[in-house]
Amino acid sequence: MASKSVLSNKRRQFLAISVALGLSACDKNAVSFNSIDITGADYCRDFKLSDSDGKIRKLADFKGRYVLVFFGFTQCPDICPTALARAAAVKQKLGKDADQLQVIFISIDPERDTADLMRAYTQNFDASFLGLRGNAEQTKQVADEFKVFYAKVTTGSSYTMDHSTLSYLFDKQGKIRLAMRHEHNADQFAADIRQLMKQAS
């Protein structure tokens, strides 16, 4: 039987998806995406966290590039490595446009995800991927801004993290555009990113 935290996670994502789909359905001229179009949302506005060199990074640092953000933790057994492996595949599928995409992995487990561990973990998937982290308070603030759910779940003498699984895509002006579903594959992600690139051209 699923744990209460997992069910809560699913309910939160279902609610977010339902609201987003309802909003996008109101616009008959909306472009069709595989992902959830949340253009104009009053959340996902920014982050302010440290990279592995201790430099504070914010969304404006990446203006001029598309930014794909995912929240997770380095000891995640399946969801996070799947998300980052997919992001690496997306960059490959973008070919000559790959450099236009910056992938950012934000830790929800600052207690264990040190700067060095974040660097090693993200670069294991792609050398250009950037891992960001903050203290417990900063982590909560950013997760709340992105409407990301996460919770510590005790497992024996240790713990794991329950968390939501959407990825967030920003356009080259730093505006939130898409909430990308975890069940979608690299082809679907790449198609949506190319759709945004086409709109901008």
TrEMBL record:
Presence of keyword Cytoplasm: no
SUPFAM superfamilies with a match to the protein in the record: Thioredoxin-like
Occurrences of domain Thioredoxin (ranges): 38-201
InterPro entries in alphabetical order: SCO1/SenC, Thioredoxin-like_sf, Thioredoxin_domain
Xref: Pfam families: SCO1-SenC (PF02630)
Acyltransferase in keyword set: no
Keywords: Copper
Family from the record: Belongs to the SCO1/2 family.
Protein name: SCO family protein
Originating species: Undibacterium amnicola
